[in-house]
UniProtKB/TrEMBL annotation:
Keywords: Amino-acid biosynthesis, Histidine biosynthesis, Hydrolase, Methionine biosynthesis, Multifunctional enzyme, NADP, One-carbon metabolism, Oxidoreductase, Purine biosynthesis. Catalyzes the oxidation of 5,10-methylenetetrahydrofolate to 5,10-methenyltetrahydrofolate and then the hydrolysis of 5,10-methenyltetrahydrofolate to 10-formyltetrahydrofolate. It comes from Streptomyces ureilyticus. The gene is folD. Residues 10-125 form the Tetrahydrofolate dehydrogenase/cyclohydrolase catalytic domain. Pathway: One-carbon metabolism; tetrahydrofolate interconversion. PANTHER family: C-1-TETRAHYDROFOLATE SYNTHASE, CYTOPLASMIC (PTHR48099:SF5), C-1-TETRAHYDROFOLATE SYNTHASE, CYTOPLASMIC-RELATED (PTHR48099). Homodimer. This is Bifunctional protein FolD.
């Protein structure tokens, strides 16, 4: 591709809409067959405005897809032990099929301990060690939603990671690490970068597929994008800005996700789809 051409945009909004429509149809079939409506429990500690908005958005999408949601709002003073008790009770509750703990849960909370209180069969956000292990071994289970969404987006645009060099910038447990494992499972050669990586630009320049998962506005510069590369920007920073300098990157990339409208909508779509999968399994009916 010549540098004067611009990349094709990867439309996450459109694909997410289709996944949610398909999920709504599956939810309706389950409800008809079992008289039970799939249910997602959302748990929020405190009232951080961004988290409140995220939870509200997720619940609104659930409602549109025929999934009920049960919200558990806990005070900011909630301890790790109290949060664990709440999550353990929801894990035992047959009326709840999926559990989402909105994170960050607060600095005083031991988030790993809290996540581990979610029963694996209800871990529709894919945050437990069990889910990460199953995903890494290629066994059935739930994937972390944003990485799961990225894989579906790549598939939609016929990007086959096999034999490609994928550079993942970021190594968080919910995003960087799992997307690297999913790409590895699809036979990509994966390099992880992080805050201690020496000469990030040099590594990114070698990438056929760039996954930006950092949370630093425009950290990845267009001049470092290999011509013809596929660029996935999972970053979401204030002012609707991604981790990639979109304007310069799009003149070198072959495919690129916009921010917003790329990875973001896919995350919620995967959450809803996995909630319906969980309900189908727990109710013993066909989920497809
Ligand atoms: P995180 O837990 O803060 O992790 C950030 C990662 O970036 C860390 O691994 C960190 O390295 C690395 N990093 C920081 N500065 C760097 C630098 N200068 N060069 C290279 N690597 C650097 O963040 P996260 O939860 O993974 O989220 C990352 C971004 O994705 C955020 O913008 C977030 O809003 C967005 N996000 C979007 C969605 C969605 O639905 N679209 C979902 C989740 C997250 P160290 O490990 O060395 O500290």
């Amino acid at each position: 591709m010549s540098p004067t051409q611009t990349a094709q945009l990867m439309n996450g909004t459109g694909l997410a809409r289709r996944i949610i429509e398909e999920t709504a149809a599956r939810a309706a079939r389950i409800s008809q067959r079992t008289n039970v409506v799939p249910c997602l429990a959302t748990v929020l500690v405190g009232e951080d405005p961004a988290s409140v908005t995220y939870v509200r958005m997720k619940r609104a999408r659930c409602a549109k897809a025929g999934i009920t949601s049960r919200h558990v709002g806990l005070p900011a003073t909630t301890t790790t032990a109290e949060l664990v008790d709440t999550l353990a009770a929801l894990s035992q509750d047959p009326g709840v099929h999926g559990i989402l703990l909105q994170h960050p849960a607060g600095e005083h909370i031991d988030e790993r301990t809290a996540f581990e209180a979610i029963a694996p069969e209800k871990d529709v956000d894919g945050v437990t060690m069990h889910s990460f292990g199953a995903m890494s071994f290629g066994l059935p289970g739930f994937v972390s939603c944003t990485p799961g969404g990225i894989v579906r987006l790549l598939d939609e645009y016929d990007v086959d990671p096999a034999g490609r060099h994928a550079v993942v910038v970021g190594r968080s447990a919910i995003l960087g690490k799992p997307i690297g494992m999913l790409l590895l499972a699809e036979d990509a050669t994966v390099t992880y970068c992080h805050s201690r990586t020496a000469d990030l630009s040099a590594v990114v320049r070698e990438a056929d597929i760039v996954i930006a998962a950092v949370g630093r506005p425009r950290l990845i510069r267009g001049e470092d994008i290999k011509p013809g590369a596929v660029v996935i920007d999972a970053g979401y920073n204030p002012g609707n800005t991604g981790d990639v300098d979109f304007d310069t990157a799009r003149s070198r990339a072959r495919l690129i996700t916009p921010v917003p409208g790329g990875v973001g909508p896919m995350t919620i779509a995967v959450l809803l789809a996995q909630t319906v999968d969980a309900a189908a399994r727990q109710l013993g009916v066909q989920g497809r």
